[in-house]
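Help! Submission page says 'invalid entity' but I think these are all valid:
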Amino acid sequence: MRDVAIIGIGMNKWGELWNSSIRNLIAESALLALDDAGIDKVDSMYIGCMSSGLFTDQEHLGSIGPDYAAMCPVPATRVESACASGGLAVRSAFIEVASGISDIVMAVGVEKMTDVDGAGATFGLATAADQEYEVYNGVTFPGLYSMMATHHMYKHGTTRDQLAMVSVKNHKNGMKNPLAQFRMEVTVDQVKSAVMVADPLTILDCSPITDGSAAVIVCSLDKAKAICKKRLVKIIGSGHASDTIQLAQREDISFLKSTAVAGQIALKMAGKKITDINFAEFHDCFTIAEIMVLEALGFVAKGKGGPATQDGLTAIDGKFPVNASGGLKSKGHPVGATGVAQIVELTKQIRGEADKGRQVKKADIGLAQNMGGSGASSVVHILEGV
Amino acid sequence: MRDVAIIGIGMNKWGELWNSSIRNLIAESALLALDDAGIDKVDSMYIGCMSSGLFTDQEHLGSIGPDYAAMCPVPATRVESACASGGLAVRSAFIEVASGISDIVMAVGVEKMTDVDGAGATFGLATAADQEYEVYNGVTFPGLYSMMATHHMYKHGTTRDQLAMVSVKNHKNGMKNPLAQFRMEVTVDQVKSAVMVADPLTILDCSPITDGSAAVIVCSLDKAKAICKKRLVKIIGSGHASDTIQLAQREDISFLKSTAVAGQIALKMAGKKITDINFAEFHDCFTIAEIMVLEALGFVAKGKGGPATQDGLTAIDGKFPVNASGGLKSKGHPVGATGVAQIVELTKQIRGEADKGRQVKKADIGLAQNMGGSGASSVVHILEGV
């Protein structure tokens, strides 16, 4: 396996982008990443997208991608694992370069979600859960995470306020991110008293419906040294794991096993301990998720994610900043783009290029955790500046 | 890059499988392939599927796959490039083993197409074409291929009978394949006088709507030598390329450029000339496609695919047998499964395990060509028995 580094990143402004179609979104971030890398072509592309079929009636992004980024006959592969599609695009690009088949590969994450109405978006997202045993019986995604939250509160004593504090923290960070969708501060009381979605989760516990894209260009380390004029960021660990798609089949619905396994694989590949990690981007699709990820990766013990959040561990000026980007909650969650945007954010932080007020102090080794559905698939990456 | 060999293959009986859901189909071929390999687990999976979202309301096959094959937390990635999704699953598995990240990887191809009605299937398939510039203006897939056929006939003098002969040959081969969907012989007259779909293509020029799956297990060559008790089949070449998604943007709609490029890449990696190839499986989604693939890969000169078919070049007892399996036309075309089934067929032929009456005489080096949409993406593999 060859060493792999990141030489280019790109991300558009996320939100309800009525003037952009999915092909524009792909091209926009792809071109920004090429520009950042100072190159005009890659050997191949991976496109992370959850459901361009259900959201935009357009599959075959493996053609749309290179076509609209003006790179035919460069090959492209769309990868999907629900909301972990973006992380998988980065992982696939990493593997292709590591294998030696290609030297320079782009991973683009994209989702165009606002071309369907709210019911259409909820239906599309629900296809990440078990259609036969969960969705047809009436459960939607907030419902699944509300069960996880309720069980976590019952088993570990996690409080309603602690859930809200995840949202408060991430919105505070997102305020400083010009690419974020919802740049506003919220208070614990506002989160708790917002419109109820699925008890105990209000709308301010939930990540939004977003259009957006992000792109990362990875390269063999040798070649990267010649091309890249910025601080080189190596991908030193990559882990990927699955869990049962149904919550009902799991031993403990308050623990994210696929994240735990993917994290262990990534750490082993990186030759690092969890305490070596300086900062992270987590998949906070719902507030409870960030707390569960803290525990699954072993940053805190089982059940201690809530108190750790309350004590400020994960704040931007805390000992272990999480979601300095604003996370899915404030930055937005175009599902297929999220995992790539996490790598864009880690790279910015490691390069020292993050926006004023949200650059973390020590940013040499960062971790990104991206997951699909109710944690039925997880992808973890560890990046290190050289 | 490490050498990669195939150690297990599996495929279910294709057709309208009312008693199977997509998860059953994945598990069925996965378990057959494990059984063929004599192992009970793999390191990871790739699942080629075009549109489980539009056909079955179920995305996130990266969880469904390992879950229903009883392999969690083994990771799985769904890959999609329309009808080339299966070929990409094999290519992704090949790259992962070649990289050294994993030793044993399964590629499963699957599509469950009959849970929607005919209009739903036509709509789902049309998402492989350009929604904004082709489909919204009324073109469906047979319409796109009818334009390609008409132009090929105009430019090269290809005859209506030559198109029909592709169908006649493939149905004759499929008769001998117990896993094929349509096991019946057809004549040139029957093809020509069948229900018209899009002039000049009748329903007997078109591949059918099919439920089915197929699986292949690839392994590092060193480990394969210890595990595999059958003839080892090496993947010696893999190529992948894109073209514009719209026909209107191409220089020549009677030539498959992405197939030509992917073929050249695969041949170069394999260190072979086109004349070294003994037999092949081509993506005959429509009869004209097989003729165009013969030309794009350079087996015959541009415009000579029709006469070569008429002269028997591609017959089972010809100099260069194509689609001994029955091809998409007779075997069926569950879109995401097709590319994997092609590799299953090449492996069977190279092992000498093909059914009586359709084993090709010289089967040491085989080629599989799989494509998406109207040729906007192509994947070519070359396999060699050792």
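Support: the input was valid. A stray whitespace character was the problem, and the output above is from the cleaned input. Chain A touches chain B through 67 residues (CB under 8 Å).
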